[in-house]
Every structure is written in C-alpha cells, then in structure tokens.
Amino acid sequence: MEGFESLHSILKGIEVRKERKESKGELTFKSLDLRNITKRFPGVLANDNISLNFKAGEIHALLGENGAGKTTLMNILYGIYHPDSGEIYINDQKVDIRSPRDAIAYGIGMVHQHFMLVQTHTVGENIALGFKDSPFVMPTREISKKIGDFCDTFGLKVDPNAKIWQLSAGEQQRAEIIKALLRGAKVLILDEPTSVLTPQEAEELFQIFKRMAESGNCIIFITHKLEEVFKISDRVTVLRQGKVIATTETGKTDKATLARMMVGRDISFEVQKKDIPVGEKLLEVNNLFVRGDMGNTVVKNISFSIHRNEIFGIAGVSGNGQRELVEAITGLRKVEKGTVKILDKETQNKNPRDIGELGVSHIPEERLRFGIVPNLPVYENVILRDYYRPPFSGFLTLNINYIKEYSKEVVERFSVMTPSVETTVKLLSGGNIQRLIIGREILSRPDVIIAAHPTYGLDIAATDFVKKLLLQKREEGSAILLVSEDLEEILQLSDTVGVMFMGEFTGIVKPRETSMEDMGLMMAGSKKWA
Amino acid sequence: MMNFKVEKRVETSRFLYIFYIGALILGMLAASLFFSVRGINPLFALSKIFMGAFGSALGIRETIAKSIPLMLCATGLIIAFRGKFWNIGAEGQLLIGAMFATWIGLRFGASHGPLFVIPLMFLSGFAGGALWGIIPAVLKVKFGVNEVIATIMLNYIASNLIQYLVYGPWKGKTHYGFPYTDDFAPSARLPLIPGTRIHYYTLIIAILLAIATYFFINRVKYGYEIKVTGENPEAARYSGMNFLKITIITLILSGGFAGIAGVGEVAGIHFHLTYPDQISAGYGFTAIIIAWLSRLNPLLAIFVSFFFGGILVGGDVIQTSFGLPAATINIFNSLILIFVLMGTFFMEYRVSFAKE
C-alpha cells in the first residue's frame, strides 16, 4: 500500500511539473521582483541584500561601476549563478531559477557582452539551435519565417541566411536579440549593449528597445554610460559595491546626481586640457601595410606621426585594423610594407623588447590576455617587461627585495588597490589591473605611450584616473598614441584624430572642428579630410 | 530529480590535502577491487604493500634506494610542467642518461680513478638526458609538434636503442650470452651505504637539485620566464621573451635530471647496462604522479618520492608473496593518478547539488 501511495505521489508530482512547464511560456508578464538577493564570492560580497522591481513596458537601466555587482545580479536572474539567499518573483509568484533553461522557460532572455553565436553558422541556424520548437528536419526553414515576422514587428534588420562571421557587431547583436525573443523572452537583459556599436548602430538599437517596450516587454540594460541612461531609459537603478543605492525615474534626476550615487563622490566631467606647443617628433609611421591573422592585408597605407606633448587618437569600430596597427608598431606583428620610426630609428619587425628599450610603453588591449599573467602575484607582474635587466635582476637571479620595493612604489603611485604585492593578480578588479599595467609601463618607459583601449570596461573613477594620467604625461613630454572606441574619450583627449575604417584612414581631423555625427560617418566609411 | 551545477572557484580550495587524501583512499579502494577479483583479501594486500615498504629496516632501505630516481625525474618534470610543457619522456631521458654514463664507465673506468670517472659519468648522463629533452623542445617550438606525442615516441626510441646496444655492439663478453654490457670497473661504481643499495652520491644530488629547483623557479630569471611562458604565452610574447631559448632551457634541465637518475641506476645498482625495463621500473612515469601530487613543488616532491618509492617496493613484495604480475603495482599507481587528477578538478571547481 505504502509503495503504491508513494508511486501515486510521484506521478502527481510529474503532472504538476508538466502543467507548470506548459504554463510558463503562456503567462502575460506583469512584473518581476528580486527580493533580498545576496551573493557572495570568496572575498567579495557581490550582491548585498538587493531588492529590485521591474515592470512590463519599461526600459530599466542598471547603472554602476565595474564590480558594483550588476552583471552578477543579472546572471542570477538568468540562472547562471544561484543566489546564497533571496527570492525571485514573477507576477508575484515565487520562482526558482536554477539554469538559463529555467530562465528562458519563465520568459527571461539575456544578450551577453560577448555574443554566444556559432561563427560559421547562419543566423537562422544559430537561432534554430536554441529553439525548443525547431523541427528535427530542416529546422531553419520554419525559423526563417518566424524571423521575418519578428523583424517586421520590431524593425530588426537581419538576413537569416547570412553567416555570423560576415556580420558586423551590431548585426550579431540583433541576431542575439531575435534569438532571445523567439524563445519567448518577455524580459530582455542586455549587458553593455552599446560597447561594440557605432553611434548610428546604437541609435537603431534604442529604437528597437522602444518598440519592444511599447509591446509590453521589459528591457533591462546594464551600462556605465550616463548618456545612454538619459537617452533611453524610463527608470534607472544605481548599484554600488553590491548594494542598491537608489531606483528613480530617469526624468526626475540628473547626470551629476547619478554620477555621485554611482561613484560615491563628486566627479568632474570636464577634462582639463592645456594648450601646449608640440615638441620633437618621436614616432613616425610611413605607408604602413600589415597583414591580419587570416593573411589578408588589414592595415593599408597608414601614415602619421606623433610629437612630444601630443596625443594622436585613432577612432573607429573595433576590427578595422587598429589591433594589427598597434601590434606592428610595438613589434608583436610583422610589417608587410612601409616603415615605423621611433626616435629616428627604424623599428619595423624589431622584437617587442628592443622597441620597449627605446622608451615605448604599451598598454595592451584585452589586458587579461596580453598585459598580465593572472596566476602570478602582483610583484611578478610588475616586472613582466623589465625582469631581465638591472636593477631588477643580476646575471642569473632576480633581485626579489628590490622588485618588491619597486612594486610597492607602483602600487602606491598608481593607487592599485591590492592587499599586498604578493596577491595573485587574478583576484584584482579590472580597474586595478589596468592601473597596475599602466604604472608598470609608463614608470619605466615614458617617452612614447601606445595605449590601446585604455579605459575599456573600466568604471568612472578608474576611467577618470587613466584620462588624467594620459593628459599629465602629455604635458610632461610624452608622445601618446591612443586607440579607443569611445568617441567621447578620443575627442576629449586627442590633439589629432585619425579615423580608421577597413584598414585605412577615412579622415585625419582636429577634434574641435569635428562633430560627433561626422565622426560616426567616417567610422562607417565616408571619407573626410581636414 | 537531482540537478547539479559546476562553478569555477575563484581561489583553489584551501583544503587541498583533503582532496589528496581522498584521492589516495579512493585509489586504494579501486585497487582493492582488483585484488578481490584475484581472490586476495584487499586489506591483507594493502598491509603487505605498506609493511613491505615501511615496516622493516630492510624495506625502508629499499624504499630510499627506489626514491632516488623518482625524486630526480619528478624534480625535472616539475620544471617542465611549470612551463606547461607536458614532458611524458622522463623514462626515455633516464635511459639515454644511463646509456651515456655506461659509455663513459666502460671507456674510462679501468684506466682512470673515480675522481675523474664519476663526475664525468654524471655530466654525460645529464647531457644525454638533456639531449633527449631538447629534441621535443625544438620540434614543438619550431614545427608545432605536440610534445606529448613526441616525448612518448622518444621513450620507445630510447628503449629500443638500448636493447640494440646490449644485444649487439655493447654486449659484454663476461656475461655469457646475457644481454648485459661488461660490468663497470670499481672506479666507475658509486659507493653505497654499507649493507644497502643506497648510492648516496645520487641521493645527495637529488635532494640538492630539488632544493635548487625550488630556488630556480622562484628566484632565477629563467625560472620566471618558464612560469610566464607556461601561464600566459601571450604575455610572454608581449614581454619579448624568446620561446625557443626558454623551452630548450626547460628541457635541458628536465631531461638532464632524468639523465642523472639513469646514471644512478647503472653506476649505483646494476654496474652495467641491461634491458631497459631492468634499468627503470617505470620511474619516469611514476614521477609524473609524484610531480602532480606535490602540486609542482620540488620540496614536497622529496617526500612524495619517498612514499612512491615505498609503493614500488610494496609492489615487489606482493609480486613475490601473491604471485601477482609485476604490472599490478602499475595499475595501483595509475589508479591513484586518475583519482588525483579527478581531485584536481574538484579543487578548481565547486559542484553543488540541488533538488528540483
């Protein structure tokens, strides 16, 4: 008898679960509540008792510095992490989200900062891959029709038959959005969606947001750009150090207030840049051609020069040859044709170490990949480029005492927040890692500074620090090459700006004489020469 | 339904030793299964192994003798593994070291004194092992050949080369048809601690090299370069490090240490060159387990080598007392390695279970 009863209850459980599964996708979404969410990582309280409410039809900005806990919170909502404590409610019903599959079933979709698409497949195939109703045979034909319908509704333009690698970052993002919507997402989370887009593409994305919100969806987007918050959001929540500082209607607040809440102190938006005459020429690039990883020429006939007390900015959407250009100048990549002259010495195809010894700092993009060795302690990272020479080492051995003293100096002068110089670098935040790299580089090689995306992914305070430092170095006589996707930053800091598109300069302009719109057009390929 | 999640740990777990002890226990349990299948009480077998190795003065003496080559090979492997160069070739490097030393021993042993011959044997053994290490290093950096395959294949070449020598050109006249070279003259033999097979010169070299390696990894420029190229090759490139030079240095040391182990075996135990599997009871492979169990710390490797020396001795004991094949102890060792590797996974990742 007992056995029978338990069998019965098991069967009943299956029934209940089945019903719940069926009903998940059908409900009309009204609201989503996070209550008292806490998530702790070793050594960090990433989310500290967070309570938040999202409504249907709103665009909700999640604003905060790096490490404020925005992405962790959204990963909890999407089932990637499980909170240590706290609850999630949808339409006032408590839900338990254990995996992204659960999240999708509850109508929550997420577009990550790094797209999760199979590069060699078409848009349709990628979408069919994650779609539970795909037919077993010829899954894409069915999907293509659905994609068409969605595109019309929201004004998303994507060719379902295009292969992912052929698409621009903006188009890939749209493919991700469609993927989420087709799976029935009513709540769409986007992690820093504009970081890879041109201003025009960002504008299009915002239009899509609006249409989606109008049809009753909820858009949550993570950002640390204040402009975007004011341009598009209905409400904004500020997070700092894992806590909610405030949630307000965007119309009832202003930039300065939000910035103060975000950073915890007042921030000046004005960057003080002095007019100073330029000095001697330190870096000269002439008719440079460089091949990319696939063997095709990706830097085509680039020429420019940088003097002491000058910042030369290179703007453009990533992937237009900036990375290869920087690698060629710093000795990491072979030059196909043309010359690079540093301090009147030809340096093309020289070793990175020889180029460094001429006084060239290199603040690399993708700092975790190139700039540091995450598993080694701070002091062993400080000497990454200098370990081989005195006073850091003798003939055979490292001068550990000197190295540690020197590392303490770098840590102090560049405000690297670290428990000690013995701490493993992977435990530091992105901003502190960047301070460490910059400190290491410019302290021993101040003449020419090659900075690739130096503020990418940094919070306001760290960004502010980097910008001021570059300007200070400019005044002290450095020649600086600044590569960045952040147009505002390029225009603020540079004395001259080259815009790169498909490996060529589509313009070399003075920031003061150029509008954002013109910059955007040049970044998209129209030529303009000043 | 049970659901489980795997999350990467931010820091490796603090309770490392629990994973290791767990891995050892699970390895022994799995080995017990094997003994049971053979109709042997596993507890009895395990106690035989450990009593045989550590339970008597004789056992401990043998254990120390066996730990010498293990310690040298493991220390060398630690250097290579720190640079993420997966050297599976310590066995072959050991054999070539033995071969080089044999040539010196036979050539100069009768005509020169020990003060000349013995240092020369160690140096030539080091050079032989280093040479056998440089080959896969160059193949990897210059031609992109996978070092695991190259080093494994070089083991076979070394083994067959030695078989060729002892059956052919180097076959000694004094051993009447056995595939041995002639015995070394007294001045080419390492002194032993009386009443044991402990060739203490090699033991002292092994311990000193382990300590020196610890210093090398943490304080010497090249040790630093090996760590950086291993941990993040992109950062090494950015720093302008020379991969070929660094990889060759790594393998000179890694192979050279194994070569010294080979010197100890021919000059301290056998006094002649013979079948490869007589020269080395898989020391180069057991050393891989030791390197991992020591978490690539050469100081720890000294002690772990002693433990595994004991397991090898225990293997000999169960072989004679139960009539089990010699490979039994290799099964035992491999089971432990597999569980240790699984244990490493749990050190890096956290797995949580939850009921739906």
Characterise this structure.
The complex is a heterodimer of chains A (530) and B (356). With 530 residues, chain A is of the alpha/beta class. Helices cover 36% and strands 24% of the residues of chain A. Chain A has helices at 2-24, 70-77, 100-105, 123-129, 139-154, 169-182, 199-214, 226-232, 255-263, 322-330, 352-357, 367-370, 378-382, 400-413, 430-444, 460-476, 487-493, 516-523, and strands at 31-41, 44-55, 59-64, 85-90, 93-95, 108-111, 187-191, 218-223, 235-240, 243-249, 281-291, 297-307, 310-315, 337-342, 345-346, 360-363, 448-452, 479-483, 496-501, 504-509. In chain A, strands 6-7-8-3-9-10 form a six-stranded mixed β-sheet, with helices on both faces. In chain A, strands 16-17-18-13-19-20 form a six-stranded mixed β-sheet, with helices on both faces. A four-stranded antiparallel β-sheet of chain A has the order 2-1-4-5, with helices on one face. In chain A, a hairpin with a 2-residue loop joins strand 4 (85-90) and strand 5 (93-95). Chain A is globular. Chain A starts with a helix and ends in a 7-residue tail after the last helix. Mean pLDDT of chain A is 85; it is low at 13-25. With 356 residues, chain B is mainly α. Chain B has helices at 16-37, 42-54, 57-82, 90-108, 114-143, 147-167, 200-219, 221-231, 233-238, 243-270, 276-279, 283-293, 298-322, 328-348; strands spanning 2-8, 349-355. A two-stranded antiparallel sheet of chain B has the order 1-2. Chain A binds chain B through residues 41-44, 81-82, 98-99, 331-332, 351-354, 356, 362, 364, 369-376, 380, 383-385, 387-388, 393, 396-398, 400, 427, and chain B through 3, 5, 7, 9-11, 219-222, 224-225, 227-228, 231-232, 234-235, 237-240, 352, 354, 356.
